[in-house]
Amino acid sequence: MERRIDDGRSVWTIVRAVADVRGVDPLELPPLGEHFDADALDRLLAAADEVMVTFDYAGCAVRATPTRVTVRQQGPRVGGR
Fold it and tell me: Where does the Halobacterial output domain lie (predicted)?
């Protein structure tokens, strides 16, 4: 799944995309801030034109650039959606 980051809130875009791929409500996912500084990620992606960050989160591979988030499921879907 690929999502565009339009509002400058990359972290929330990542969480929503992972929730959609996993088939769960975003509030059911572990807080992204438990893994790293989410505010720093927002600042990094907002400040740089040519940066890519990749990481695993909630059973998904995430790739984030200043304009797009791509999420790929690594395990079975957990929800009924």
Answer: 13-71
Q: How many residues does the chain have?
A: 81
pLDDT digits (tens, 9 = 90+) for 25-34: 999 999 998 8
**Residue 35: strand, helix, or coil:** coil
Q: Would you list the domain boundaries of the chain?
A: 2-73
In the DSSP assignment, the letter for residue 48 is -
Q: How do residues 17-65 score in pLDDT, each as one tens digit?
A: 999 999 999 999 999 988 889 899 999 998 888 899 999 999 999 999 9
Identify residue 41 by its one-letter amino acid code: L
